[in-house]
Amino acid sequence: MRNKFDKELNQLNDELIEMGSLIEKAIEMSISALVKKDIELAKQTIEFDSEIDQQERVIEGLCLKLLLQQQPVAKDLRVISSALKMITDMERIGDHASDIAEITLVIADEPYIKEVRQIQEMAKEAIIMLVKSIEAFVNKDMVLAGEVIGRDDIVDDLFVQVKNDLIHMIHENANTGEQATDFLMIAKYLERIGDHATNIAEWVIFSITGEHKGKRTESSNPKLK
């Protein structure tokens, strides 16, 4: 019985890795669409979100099967409950990639008011955090989970840089305000992706130790979620 349970726990790891790969692809697609002003790729990114949602349902079903059909001990319960919490954050990351693509549809036919280099750097760091947080769960690696949590400061600092640049542009030319707001939203979505990756890392630590610092809350502004 335990061998079967362990086999299904390994399957859970595989499914989480698969969901992580889908989300990584969604972020890459959304940023590529933004940089290249690729309307079709932006639309594909939005449609791709349904695959992430489907994978979330697969993992939910597997977790419920483990809970109902097996007899997990306390440590196993922490792992399963952590996975259920993690996929909620992972699904939100997929939503944010889709949100970025939706903004691209609005601004792609306009000259950009700023370079997107910092946006690309934010996306790169957020992807690193996502991949490492899932790796930490699979390998039960608290040190790696802690590294993910620490990297969130990099994303936050880049967000502040983007925000300050945009505020300066608006002060210099009020006509840039509308697109500046769109770019600020894109940066905010990437900052939230970093927060969700941090949440995942914190659930990894909980799955190992049983201690959790408490999940970060979403912004009270629904547009920034």
In words, what does this structure look like?
The C terminus is likely disordered. The radius of gyration is 19 Å and the shape is elongated. It has one domain: Methane Monooxygenase Hydroxylase, Chain G, domain 1 (Up-down Bundle), CATH 1.20.58. It is 83% helix and 0% strand. It has 225 residues and is mainly α. The longest helix is centred in the N-terminal third of the chain and has 35 residues.
Indicate how many domains the architecture comprises: 1
What's the end-to-end separation, in Å? 42 Å
What is the top-level CATH class? Mainly Alpha
Number of strands: 0
Beta content comes to: under 5%
Helical fraction equals over 70%
Give the SSE string: HHHHHH
Main structural class: mainly alpha
CATH superfamily: Phosphate transport system protein phou homolog 2, domain 2
Put simply, the count of helices is 6
Q: Write down the Rg.
A: 19 Å
Instruction: State the CATH topology.
Output: Methane Monooxygenase Hydroxylase, Chain G, domain 1
